[in-house]
Amino acid sequence: MITEKHKSLGIAFIRTSIVPPVGGFLVTFFLEKGINIDSSIIYTVVTFVMSALYYLVFHGIEVLSQNPKIKHLAGIALGYPAQPKYVPSNLDKEANRNINYAIEKEIDAR
Fold first, then answer.
1. Distance of alpha carbon 11 from alpha carbon 17, whole angstroms
2. Is CB count within 10 Å lower at the N or C end of the chain?
3. Domain ranges of the chain
């Protein structure tokens, strides 16, 4: 799932990289047509629309990721990490035994 950090980064990107050129284009377009609109209203509307589109696209991908056939592609699009394919080795089993022994020894010492 998309974390709050991803959402805030996406919205920050929209506000800093997409809204200014789109807003500037719309202000220029309206001025050329003789329509005088406050630029802050245009920037607010563009920010809202782009944020809503951002949410809808990524939420749609999250919903579609429930389908096992496209789960891998959705994972790539959303940046999900792959499931680990970790098989413990004998060395790991020995290390766990040593850790458990040390824990037991510490508990017995108390």
1. 10
2. C
3. 4-83
